[in-house]
Amino acid sequence: MGSNLCVEPLEASFGARVTGLSLTDASDAAFKELYRLWLEYALLIFPAQHMAPEDQVIFARRFGGLEIELAALSNLRGDGSVRDDVPEDEMMQILKGNMGWHADSTYMPVQAKGAVFSAHRTPRTGGATAWADMGAAYAALAPGMRARIEGLAAHHSLIHSQTKIGHAARPAGESEGTRNADDYNGYGFHDDPPPLRALIKVHPETGQPGLLIGRHAFGIPGLAPAESEALLDELIDFACQPPRIYEHDWAAGDTVVWDNRCLLHRGRPWDMAEPRVMYHSRIAGDPVTESAMPS
Ligand SMILES: [Fe+2]
Predict the structure, then answer these.
(1) Predicted pLDDT at 1
(2) If you measure from the C-alpha of residue 131 to the centroid of ligand 1, how many angstroms do you get, rounded to a whole number?
(3) 1 CA to middle of ligand 1, Å?
(4) CATH number of the domain at 6-285, please?
(5) 97 CA distance to ligand 1 centroid (A)?
(6) What separation in Å is there between the alpha carbon of 105 and the centre of ligand 1?
(7) Which of 85, 158, 281, 283 could make a disulfide contact with 107, Cβ separation 3.0–4.6 Å?
């Protein structure tokens, strides 16, 4: 590891700001140390990396296979024009949905391991990303609540969570052939039964138990729908409080990597008349430990 490496823990129960190395040029030994730091802190923030998108993909792949190589999360169309903030624009609906606390791909058969995320164009104000520490949240739960959720599971669906914010998301099968290159590609809008996931997830590498909740979760088997929703809302409200949250105000050139097995995250609002361009690489979960429960 280079002697210039500087690791500064964030003002939260997790996370660190890491400077003194170029992610593009990290040696195998340096990466091994980064991976160790990633497991320890769950969120690493690397200011001023200015990584090229292709280098981001190469870096992300060092964490494991990729579920999504590179997706632009942006309110710009392919031609660079700003999208209209209208209900019909599915990408705008997805960006707004992302402003609710969630873990990535819990609505897929295998949830994501993590993500590399970088800022390319940032608005003058707003547009931060926030993360929340689900291991610390579980550890802080009152014993009564811990006992109550032990053994419970919830279904996870992107159609469910988008419908809840007023987006009339259509299953991919129904909308086939109706999307064009500028539209959201429909990822996650599948017709299969929503995966069922335990509310308590044991991190496969650290062994730490954490809450697996977020906006995609609904319909706890054995509870009435309203009771299930109230419990899931209560858990999010409790979990996503200081010191278990951290919000990063982006500068163009920043790169982060987070662990999706123990953190929730959400985008923060901004004036959507202003461009915001982020690149997201989604690291695939291990099917042995990130698969949904058998249904
Ligand atoms: Fe996300």
Answers:
(1) 47
(2) 10
(3) 31
(4) 3.60.130.10
(5) 9
(6) 8
(7) 158
The count of other CB atoms within 10 Å of the CB of residue 47 is 15
Angstrom distance (rounded) from CA 180 to CA 210: 39
Reference 258, options 160, 162, 88, 116; nearest CA is 116
Cβ contact 60:116 at 8 Å: yes
- State residue 223's pLDDT score: 98
pLDDT at 127: 98
Q: Is the pTM of this model over 0.85?
A: yes
| CA 67 to ligand 1 center in whole angstroms | 13
Which regions of the chain are under pLDDT 50?
A: 1-2
* Burial track 73-108 (b if 16+ CB lie within 10 A, e otherwise): bbbbeeeeeebeeeeebbbbbbbbbbbbbbbbbbbb
CA of 98 to the centre of ligand 1 (A): 6
Q: Say how many Å lie between the CA of residue 99 and the centre of ligand 1.
A: 9
Centre of ligand 1 to C-alpha 101, Å, is 8
pLDDT at 171: 78
In the chain, what are the domain boundaries?
Answer: 6-285
Q: How far is the CA of 208 from the centre of ligand 1 (A)?
A: 22
Q: What is the pLDDT of residues 198-217, one digit of tens each?
A: 999 999 999 999 999 999 99
Which positions ≥6 away from 233 have C-beta within 8 Å? none
Pairing relationship of beta strands 263-267 and 129-133 according to DSSP bridges: antiparallel
What strands lie across the sheet with 129-133, from one edge to the other? 245-248, 129-133, 263-267
